[in-house]
Write a structure and sequence with these properties.
Elements (H helix, E strand, L loop, with lengths): L1 H10 L4 E3 L13 H7 L5 E6 L6 E8 L2 H15 L4 E5 L4 E5 L5 E5 L4 E6 L2 H12 L4 H7 L5 H6 L11 H6 L6
Helix pairs in contact: 1-4, 4-5
């Protein structure tokens, strides 16, 4: 739905890249909310402008593509028993998962810890850019309800360089366990 994409664009100051719509078959494990985004853009990327040339470059995924959602959902279910649909990450150790009831959780693979961070996808999208833009976690907690202030107090999220997160590097054999 365009409201989700407009919210993402607003949160990222318009620095996003939309992709061709996903037009393939729907997978039963992916929620209709996620499909409403994918049918407009098969994933949404964050962009930035290079300082010297003003060239727009893609720096990471805000919402994964359909293929990535299926791949990462399967990976985290198989290796960690994570249930739900993995649709994004924080650029580091944590992935975001939408549960069957619509709640959003953050799963930290280093701690094997899953915490609910938002009641809905909308609540998540209002808040997520604050983590990725390097705002203080307490500012994010104050700015976004119903995100868990306890969870936010444990970590300060900054945007990393997906897909070079630890799990991706391990999976590709670039680093050891």
């Amino acid at each position: 739905m365009m409201d989700y994409i407009e919210q993402i664009s607003n949160q990222y100051g318009g620095e996003i890249l939309l992709h061709d719509p996903y037009t393939g078959e729907k997978h039963e494990n992916i929620s209709q909310e996620i499909y409403s985004i994918l049918q407009i853009s098969n994933g949404i990327s964050e962009t930035m402008r290079l300082p010297n040339t003003n060239e727009k470059i893609e720096i990471g995924w805000i919402i994964y593509s359909h293929e990535m959602i299926l791949e990462w959902t399967s990976f985290y279910d198989t290796n960690y028993g994570l249930k739900g649909t993995v649709f994004s990450d924080d650029g580091g150790d944590c992935v975001y998962c939408i549960k069957p009831d619509g709640a959003i959780t953050c799963f930290n693979s280093m701690d094997n810890d899953e915490t609910q961070i938002a009641d809905t996808l909308w609540d998540f999208l209002i808040t997520i850019s604050l983590y990725r833009k390097g705002h203080n976690s307490n500012q994010a907690a104050a700015a976004a309800k119903p995100v868990s202030a306890i969870w936010l107090g444990k970590r300060q999220h900054t945007f990393g360089s997906w897909p070079r997160g630890r799990e991706e590097q391990r999976r590709k054999g670039q680093i050891g366990i």
